[in-house]
């Protein structure tokens, strides 16, 4: 299982739901899809450090790095789209060929 990265605003909002809205840690974890036990640590970190709790936990990406990542993602999406187009073309040519009839 790989560790997920959460941005500081997401962490602050999740903690706010527990601290201010009085929702249970388990409920917020379940609703937001946060790994079990992680939010409890965030709440404690918030109590210890208040507003400074989540500053700098994710460094912003430079525009060049963002552009590179977006181009890579765009290429991947185009490849996936092209594969799906080919699959649709294959399966729509003869509907009985692949139906098991």
Structure, explained:
The protein is mostly helical and 101 residues long. It folds into two domains: 45 residues; 41 residues. The chain contains four helices and no strands. α1 packs across α3. The longest helix is centred in the C-terminal third of the chain and has 31 residues. The radius of gyration is 22 Å and the shape is elongated. It starts with 7 loop residues before the first helix and ends in an 8-residue tail after the last helix. The model has no long low-confidence stretch (mean pLDDT 82).
Features:
single chain, 101 residues, mainly alpha, 2 domains, 4 helices
Structural class: mainly alpha
Q: What is the CA-atom radius of gyration, in angstroms?
A: 22 Å
Q: Note the quaternary state here.
A: single chain
Number of helices: 4
N-to-C span:
42 Å
List the uncertain runs: none
Q: How much helicity do the residues have?
A: 55-70%
**What's the domain count?**
2
Q: Secondary-structure element sequence?
A: HHHH
Shape: elongated
Q: Determine the mean pLDDT.
A: 82
Report the major sheet. none
Number of distinct beta strands:
0
**Residues in β-strands, percent:** under 5%
